[in-house]
Design goal:
Blueprint lengths: L12 H27 L3 E2 L5 E2 L12 E5 L5 E6 L4 H10 L3 E9 L11 E10 L3 H19 L4 E3 L2 E4 L5 E4 H9 L11 H11 L11 H13 L6 E2 L1 E7 L8 E2 L2 E12 L2 E8 L4 H19 L7 H9 L3 E7 H9 L17
Parallel strand pairs: 1-5, 8-10, 9-11
Antiparallel strand pairs: 2-4, 3-4, 5-6, 6-15, 7-8, 11-13, 12-13, 13-14, 14-15
Length: 350
């Protein structure tokens, strides 16, 4: 706002002093979680930031760069949006329990809960069902709270007890409860299904003519479902509809939904986990469709990582999760913005 006094740089001693308790909490949480993974027999890994493809989700955007080879030729590379591709290659190599505190990058993201550069905590269990990873998440979040001594998470007037038994809620159940929509009856099978969801959601969200089924789903989720999640206790939202499966496998007894879950506290999404897809042909199909849609919407698309697709075909059955580590530290330390819990905010920030 015009006339406002600009913030001092993050390294100004007075501002750093205000942030230091949150940064100390970050160290305590990091140590506690490394202890948990050690107890569980996990190996900590470090995977490469530069990738042939940063991920193939329609609405994720990655910074790009070039590398110069010894012969002077150049090759395009991307800063990863997740360590997922690299970690799954390690599963294919024979690793069975791995975790990483991974620095990741996303364009077009900035706010109290978003940074263009942040830390993702990812871990994977080979030969384990995805409810084992759900159970891990509950323990990880409680360990973070124990490490800082906080009794309750709070954010924007909402609170959640990180030690209470979480609420388990299917996506279909959440849409019925909070938006009055029978979601599973609209799972895509043609334009009629998109029309059915548009009709059901039209009184609740603005539906544009070119909105896809997934666009309408996302609008309802963000505007009418997420604000109710993680209030009083954690919420585990699971069984995402098949169009939102991403890298998750379909549920064996109901292919309308996928083995995908998300964990919420105080309306904040903390984690996104999968029973991992190991069908390389299906993964290629999903990626290709996503990149066609990305090109239509944004005028750009990322290449497919053929090495990753080969690894998908070779990897064992597994489950994994990506947890926003900075968000977890923010809640566990009592901070109100994500940039309060990172040692040096991104270069475009003050």
């Amino acid at each position: 706002m015009a006339g406002d006094k600009p913030l001092s740089p993050f390294w100004a001693p007075s501002r750093h002093l205000d942030r230091r308790p949150f940064l100390q909490a970050r160290g305590a949480v990091t140590g506690a979680l490394r202890g948990f993974f050690a107890e569980q027999g996990f190996t900590e890994v470090e995977t490469s930031v530069l990738q042939v493809s940063p991920g193939n989700e329609t609405h994720l955007h990655a910074p790009s760069t070039e590398i110069m080879r010894p012969d002077g030729s150049r090759a395009s590379r991307y800063l990863r949006t997740s360590p997922e591709f690299a970690c799954k290659k390690l599963l294919a190599a024979g690793e069975t329990r791995i975790f990483e505190f991974a620095r990741v990058f996303r364009d077009r993201e900035r706010g109290d809960l978003h940074l263009p550069e942040f830390t993702m905590l990812e871990w994977y269990r080979a030969d384990a069902p995805y409810d084992a990873i759900m159970a891990d998440c509950i323990v990880v979040i409680a360990r973070a709270a124990q490490a800082t001594g906080i009794g309750s998470f709070s954010f924007r007037g909402r609170t959640a007890d990180p030690f209470a038994e979480p609420e388990l809620l299917t996506v279909a159940g959440a849409f019925e409860r909070f938006a009055g929509i029978d979601l599973l009856s609209t799972i895509p099978g043609g334009e009629a299904n998109r029309t059915a969801l548009a009709a059901a959601a039209g009184a609740k969200v603005r539906v544009a003519e070119d909105d896809s089924w997934s666009d309408i789903f996302s609008k309802v989720l963000v505007e009418h479902v997420e604000p109710h999640l993680g209030q009083g206790r954690l919420t585990i939202l699971f069984e995402y509809p098949s169009p939102e499966a991403a890298l998750a496998q379909a549920k064996a007894d109901d292919p309308r939904v996928a083995e995908r879950f998300e964990v919420y506290a105080c309306g904040v999404e903390l984690a996104n986990g999968f029973g991992e897809l190991t069908d390389a042909d299906e993964q290629r199909k999903r990626f290709t469709e996503s990149m066609i849609e990305k090109q239509r919407r944004y005028g750009e698309a990322y290449p497919l990582d053929e090495d990753f697709l080969a690894a998908v075909a070779a990897m064992p059955e597994a489950s994994g999760v990506a947890l926003g580590f900075d968000r977890l530290v923010m809640l566990a330390s009592g901070a109100t913005r994500i940039d309060q819990v990172v040692w040096t905010p991104p270069a475009d920030d003050r």
